[in-house]
Design brief:
It is a single chain. This protein has 359 residues and is an alpha+beta fold. The chain has 2 domains: 3-232, Rossmann fold (3-Layer(aba) Sandwich); 237-358, OB fold (Dihydrolipoamide Acetyltransferase, E2P) (Beta Barrel), CATH 2.40.50.140. Helices cover 23% and strands 36% of the residues. The chain has 8 helices and 20 strands. The protein has a 6-stranded mixed beta sheet with strand order 6-7-8-3-9-10, sandwiched between helices. It has a 5-stranded mixed barrel with strand order 11-12-13-20-14. A 5-stranded antiparallel beta sheet has the order 15-19-16-17-18, with no helix packed on it. Helix 2 (93-103) packs across helix 3, helix 2 (93-103) packs parallel to helix 4 and helix 3 (108-121) crosses helix 4 (137-149).
Length: 359
């Protein structure tokens, strides 16, 4: 599949501060691509350079092979949906969606046809005459996206568009956005600090930190194989243990957990010296593993407390009773529904699920 966006060594300085630091990126045509990172990492600055609202200090932005240098925002084949939506409260839904088409001076019949088609495509058929104030937050979100999509951009840029919605509506809109993008086939570039949004919706994700990309991968690749401590800590939930490396060879290490047992682990980055951090996801810890299972790290857990969250119930437990604490996800089989604080239970974790990173 061809690339719709190519970015090469893109940099943006604000005085002595470097907001975006020489990033490279290619986004495939028709994909859902997310840029994920904490506040202040440079992701919105990058988005504004793609849209043309900011000039790069250096580097190149190409859309479908055309260099965007000097091309103003209104002449770029992109459209931007902001978190605050920027809808016109004095216009009804249809007028909001038609706004860009009218500025292009399209014939009235063509505008009405395209607006009606877009209302149907975003699930708002029959809402054209309603005032914006009468719509729910999710419906307003769809109007903003419809207003952008009706102009048929090569790329739709979305800057944390779900941030103002409540949790339940945000969960619903994640699914709707993914379905809409799949139906339309328009390339979506989505900015977010919410890892759940990025993992659920995206074909590929770039994890950004301090103006640079730490890793670009599929959601599954980011979760299963984070290449740095930052990615491991930012994407998904992890237990982080202090440890000392006793031996390392061929991408594996034998480590002694501070206050705990010796474990075999996967060496995710080169470690100079002996101190390291061990990352173990809560769902990777096996409770009462089969005694015939070979090659796993085995230890005992003493349950400290039950962290009930419906289908995502976890326990807080101490390794060997006095060692470091782990959060462990309970399997949803009902097998461990009887577990209570003070119980001791055999546990294990595979070395490939123990990621060793520099301290």
């Amino acid at each position: 599949m061809s690339s719709v966006l190519q970015i090469e060594r893109l940099t943006r300085h604000f005085g002595d501060f470097t907001a975006v630091d020489g990033v490279d990126l290619e986004v495939e045509e028709g994909s859902f691509f997310s840029i994920l990172g904490p506040s202040g990492c440079g992701k919105t600055t990058l988005l504004r350079m793609i849209a043309g609202f900011l000039e790069p200090t250096s580097g190149t932005v190409r859309i479908r092979g055309e260099d965007m240098a000097g091309i103003p925002p209104n002449r770029r084949p992109v459209n931007l949906v902001f978190q605050n939506l920027a809808l016109f409260p004095t216009m009804d839904v249809a007028a909001n969606i038609a706004f860009g088409l009218r500025r292009r001076r399209l014939p009235g019949a063509d505008i009405r046809r395209r607006v009606a088609s877009m209302l149907e495509r975003v699930g708002l058929e029959g809402y054209g005459g309603k005032p914006i104030a009468q719509l729910s937050g999710g419906q307003q979100q769809r109007v903003a996206i419809a207003r952008a999509l009706v102009l048929e951009p090569s790329i739709l840029l979305l800057d944390e568009p779900l941030g103002a919605l409540d949790l339940k509506l945000r969960e619903q809109m994640k699914i709707e956005l993914k379905q809409l993008q799949a139906r339309e086939g328009t390339t979506f570039i989505y900015i977010t600090h919410d890892q759940s949004e990025a993992l659920v919706m995206s074909d590929r994700v770039a994890v950004m930190n301090e103006g640079r990309f730490e890793q670009i991968d599929t959601p599954q690749g980011l979760y299963a194989g984070p290449v740095s401590r930052f990615v491991a800590g930012f994407v998904g939930e992890n237990n982080i243990l202090e440890a000392d490396i006793e031996q390392q060879q061929d991408g594996t290490a034998r480590v002694r957990v501070t206050g705990g047992p010796v474990m075999q682990a996967s060496l995710m980055q080169p470690v100079s010296g002996s101190r390291c951090k061990l990352y173990i996801r809560p769902e990777s810890v096996m409770l009462e593993p089969d005694t015939a299972l070979e090659g796993i790290n085995r230890f005992t857990l003493e349950i400290r407390s039950l962290l009930f969250d419906g289908s995502n119930t976890k326990v807080l437990a101490a390794i060997d009773g006095t060692g470091p604490e782990l959060i462990v996800a309970l399997p949803q089989t009902g097998q461990f529904i009887h577990v209570r604080a003070g119980d001791k239970i055999a546990a294990g974790v595979h070395p490939t699920a123990c990621g060793c990173y520099p301290e």
